[in-house]
Amino acid sequence: MWNGIIEKYKDFYDIKDGEAVVTLNEGNTPLIPAENISNILGDIKLYLKYEGLNTTGSFKDRGMTMAVSKAVEAGSRAIICASTGNTSAAAAAYAAKAGIKCFVLIPNNKIALGKLAQAILYGAEIIPVDGNFDDALRIVREIAEEGKVTLVNSVNPYRLLGQRSGAYEVCDQLEGKVDYLSIPVGNAGNISAYWAGFKDYYAAKKIDKLPVMLGFQAEGAAPIVENRVFDEPETIATAIRIGNPASWDKAVAARDESKGLIDKVTDDEILQAQKLLASKEGVFVEPASAASLAGVIKLSKKGYFEKDKNVVCVLTGNGLKDPSVVSPEKELKVYSVKIEDIKAIIDKTLGSDQDG
Amino acid sequence: MWNGIIEKYKDFYDIKDGEAVVTLNEGNTPLIPAENISNILGDIKLYLKYEGLNTTGSFKDRGMTMAVSKAVEAGSRAIICASTGNTSAAAAAYAAKAGIKCFVLIPNNKIALGKLAQAILYGAEIIPVDGNFDDALRIVREIAEEGKVTLVNSVNPYRLLGQRSGAYEVCDQLEGKVDYLSIPVGNAGNISAYWAGFKDYYAAKKIDKLPVMLGFQAEGAAPIVENRVFDEPETIATAIRIGNPASWDKAVAARDESKGLIDKVTDDEILQAQKLLASKEGVFVEPASAASLAGVIKLSKKGYFEKDKNVVCVLTGNGLKDPSVVSPEKELKVYSVKIEDIKAIIDKTLGSDQDG
Hints:
Chains A, B: One of its GO terms (molecular function) is threonine deaminase activity. 2 copies of one chain form a homodimer. Chain A is an alpha/beta fold. Helices cover 42% and strands 14% of the residues of chain A. Chain A has helices at 5-8, 35-41, 60-73, 86-98, 113-122, 133-145, 157-173, 189-203, 223-226, 248-257, 267-281, 287-301, 339-350; strands at residues 31-33, 45-50, 78-82, 101-107, 125-129, 150-151, 180-184, 212-218, 261-265, 310-315. In chain A, helix 3 (60-73) packs parallel to helix 4, helix 3 (60-73) packs across helix 7 and helix 8 crosses helix 10.
């Protein structure tokens, strides 16, 4: 029975017998072979690490199990974070499981409905502040310094330790044969954590080569790509709409040490990739997640990849977090319950080569 | 590497070498020990089989991998279903993966936004009909009889075969020690499939006792409980708002053979159970899923359970499918970015026993 990442990867996590472990059985997410998109691209073997199937719907659960376990072990009665969505959901859920309080500071604009609904139902105290994400992050850091409440944003070092498990799993699932790892870059913690995880596995001789790291930011929130802070980051991909990433230096190091790259993709490319994932592979992700595939498509068109290499796209969050981008409100014609009407639609759609 | 339920449980599925297998790596969902709710109830050991972590967000994926694989093997170019939501999402996703068309007939009322968004993005043709679920089901059955398109509603026998894997997994995860299995009942396919799955495992000597089956319908859609068709079924739990279940007889047999029961719970009990799952266990489910826990709570209060037995609640779908019930639109006060304001909120929430 799978009991979460801390138990599974205990050789890599310094948790002693009797220490608190707060888990929602996170991790163990599928690695889905994307045969249809691979055929379209023609050069690579694409795999989708579908992190939307963690318990709260995003990769954040991997870090939160570590951060909240350590907070409980240290005697904390509350955790706090600034969040545009996924972090708040994960923090609130793990606090609920642990029986401690959770405070979530949110920027007062453009929060995806599904994400806020989660934190509220999990029982967190939501505090909207009149500012952007970076303002909220500054406040929670200052408050946490007093020691009353534990900060669980990704500057909490346990978060990134937990997130390394994503890399361990990908290596286990592909038996070490990961050639490229493509990942969305927002606050830049996840690309840093994956790279550290791959290095852990390499040092432990569980893999005999390290993958090339490919990070992708949204064009309107591309501080690392353009090497400047974005004061007003803007993108439809809310989970990576961050102008001044906390793990900036680590992400640059991951890029350089792996001989990879961090590039940007447009909102349009992101939405195209999101649609391709759903309509060709049956996988529904939130827009930010699709940045990893959008980037791979961009590189594939340029002839970047060697033939037949294994490319893993990390799909960070579930599409159900943010269904608003799909616009299902469009007018659908309502048909009477006459069979003939329905048959006519089917025949028209399947085309004239269908003979009774 | 987990490659879906057909590969994992090939001893139980009659798929020959070379036959088509259309999979989204469904199954392998966590069984989460619900220590907090167990402590509140005081009598049982509660486990949550969180089926919301299947690839399209519900248990329907287990049956759809079988149904679509067999449709493709038979040369079908399209599948069709009537659906209030979860079935349409699963059908559309597996059709996308298989590269065939999917037609979804929906009743023209009260469809959860998240569910329809999925089917649309996966590329299905959505056909709203002027009638209820039972009208839609009657039409698709009639159309499928002509043989052009394959019906993938639960009357498709492969659906229930696939869904048996939920029972196999629960047995594997609890090493056979499942005393009670609690499950929401709508179209009644899933309770029938679980019971058949347990009997498969018993016949194969993988378990040495069968669990007691506990099914729960919503009060406003309780045809099996009241032994009458509901012409106008009504409940907030849209996924089980069904007045004339397709697998009625099988569900009654599962109940009677296992010496279990099928009872009803109110919408209020369902919403209370949904909130308890989120706020005590960090697990967010759609309302229909919470019917299984609502029923267990009802029975626990009556002293139904023997002490310390393992009770598994099947949580059929992800809460993100239907976040509207959470009402996060309530007015949240926006705070200025002054640290003092935020500290005051935290101190007030944590109470006076927190001494700086």
